[in-house]
């Protein structure tokens, strides 16, 4: 019995042109293609196909602010050698339109599908408008491809403008619109009050001029009435608070960070909201009928120890830790009105945090009155970091804090009648244009059950 060696299949057996020949031709010179050489055959005129030539569909890719690549491959019988196409180039028409019916054409042209490239078509479309949808289609002979959809990228100079254009924003302000850690009529630089009020008036005027807010928020000199409430049907009552304008001056001049050195932070008359705003908020608690009660405000409500030494409590006096009586009144009002499903969203600290609001932060088993989500900044502080040994030690001292991350990004909240989900979206880097965004951590709050659980 004779034995023949097994047949060795070569890629060139299945290609429409010898692979080495193609690579040599492409590598030689652009003039080879332009003046003849490899792609020099005459066009196949009046093509007629045995089957639909766009059997492999269409696709788009490599988007830019002014365009993208559109692709197809002419293959009436794609499983046959050469896709069922003769060894001749064929002309393919393409068009890009503003509408799916291809009635409002933005640009059009022709391209040649060469057999040496498997009759694939790669059209680099340019001259389009940024950040918008387009539709495209190929035509060959009497055959038309399906309509594809593509989208141009936003121009780099407008990453924030595009976001504002995409959806309504509920606007509020914090300290840096005016001055770091300002409180009422005082600043950490101890600027004379009359000069600071001039600065505050100018800052609030600029804030109003540049943001989509109602006329009711028009500043009156150095004052503004920015706290307000939004109702999303019976799903959500959103209370937008102002923890800057009406608050007490910073405890201990915003100086000492060790709680034992600042008894002033415990004064019973200290406030974060002022009397009028407190009454407005607490009255809203008693009349609320929504499933979820949201407090959208500026600085951390939950206790936050900044010193890793377990024997030392060092809060930030700019936060609600600097006005303990104000926080106690807030929690008492939530309890008295039997407000369930309380969620606080916060900014200010340029980090991601998630934690539970305890009636008594010294007792881990104390009742949980709500949860707090703190969103990081978009670009400040560079790329940031995930977590380190120092912050791990801090979290051990504050078991009500369930999550920390110091990278850049944003928090996405998905609210339904039965649950509230917060997804912390984090970029690996903001120091380069091609940083990648991913969900770093997700937490869920179940309706009727206070507390956080990981999604």
Report what the structure shows.
- By secondary structure, the protein is of the alpha+beta class.
- It folds into two domains: 41-154, Immunoglobulin-like (Sandwich); 227-454, Alkaline phosphatase D (PhoD) (Purple Acid Phosphatase, chain A, domain 2, 4-Layer Sandwich).
- The chain has seven helices and 20 strands.
- The strands form four sheets. It has an eight-stranded mixed beta sheet. Strands 3, 4, 6, 7 and 8 form a five-stranded antiparallel beta sheet that branches.
- The radius of gyration is 32 Å and the shape is elongated.
- The model is unreliable at 1-37 (pLDDT under 50).
CATH homologous superfamily identity of the largest domain: Alkaline phosphatase D (PhoD)
Q: Would you state the CATH class of the largest domain?
A: Alpha Beta
| CATH architecture title of the largest domain | 4-Layer Sandwich
- In percent, how helical is the residue content? 10-25%
Would you identify the regions where 5 or more consecutive residues have pLDDT less than 50?
1-37
Total individual domains: 2
Largest sheet: 8 strands, mixed
State the strand order across the main sheet.
Answer: 9-10-11-12-14-13-16-15
Structural class: alpha+beta
Q: At the third CATH level, what is the topology name of the largest domain?
A: Purple Acid Phosphatase, chain A, domain 2
In total, how many beta strands? 20
Run of helices and strands: HHEEEEEEEEHHEEHEHEEEEHEEEEE
Cα-atom radius of gyration: 32 Å
Query: Mean of residue pLDDT?
Result: 89
Overall outline = elongated
